[in-house]
Amino acid sequence: MGLFKKKKLQEEKRYIGKVSKNYRFKSKKAAGVLTFILVLIALYMGLQGVFGDKISAYKAKEILNRGGVLIDISSETLYEKGHIMGAENVPYDKLKESGLEYDHEKNIVICGRNGIRTSKAVKYLRSLGYKNVYDLGSLDSFR
C-alpha cells in the first residue's frame, strides 16, 4: 500500500472516530432528555392517582345543577363552621361506615375543608362501584 493510501485511510479512521463520538454524545443526550420526559409523565400519572381527578368549581356547579349530590367529607365541627349550601356531611372518618345508598350511576361531587382527603374518598367510592364520582377538592375552590 502506498504512503498516500495509508494517510487517506488514517484520515478516514479519524473522521469516523469523530462522527462516532459525536453520535454517541447526541444519543446519550437524547436518552437523557427522553428519560426526563418519561419521569415527568410518570410523576404526573402518579400524582393524578394521589390527588384524584380534580374538577373545577364551574364543572361541579354543572353537575349539581343536573341533580348531582355534593358530599362534604369535613369533620362535623368544621362542617358546622361553614359548608357549601346543599352539601351533605359525611365525615371522611365515617365514610366507610356511613353506608351511602345512592344509585351507582348518580353523579357525586366530593369536597372537603382543605382537599387533602378528597381524592382518597373518590377512590373509595369508585371501589364501591360508584361510576360518576368527582373530586372538587377544597371548599375554597368552590367560592
3D structure, described in words:
The chain is of the alpha/beta class and 143 residues long. It folds into 2 domains: 51 residues; 85 residues, Rhodanese-like domain (Oxidized Rhodanese, domain 1), CATH 3.40.250.10. Helices cover 55% and strands 13% of the residues. The chain contains 5 helices and 4 strands, in the order ααβαβαβαβ. Strand 3, helix 5 and strand 4 form a beta-alpha-beta unit. The longest helix has 49 residues.
- CATH H level, superfamily name of the largest domain: Rhodanese-like domain
CATH architecture type of the largest domain: 3-Layer(aba) Sandwich
Q: Which structural category fits the helices and strands? A: alpha/beta
Discrete helix count: 5
β-strand percent reads 5-15%
Rounded Rg: 29 Å
| Cα separation of the termini | 86 Å
Query: What is the total domain count?
Result: 2
How much helix is in the residues? 40-55%
CATH topology name of the largest domain = Oxidized Rhodanese, domain 1
- Overall 3D form: rod-shaped
The level-1 CATH class of the largest domain = Alpha Beta
Can you tell me the residue ranges where pLDDT is under 50 for at least 5 consecutive residues? none
**pLDDT average, as an integer?**
80
Lateral arrangement of strands in the main beta sheet: 2-1-3-4
Number of strands: 4
Order of helices and strands: HHEHEHEHE
Main beta sheet: strand number and arrangement? 4 strands, parallel
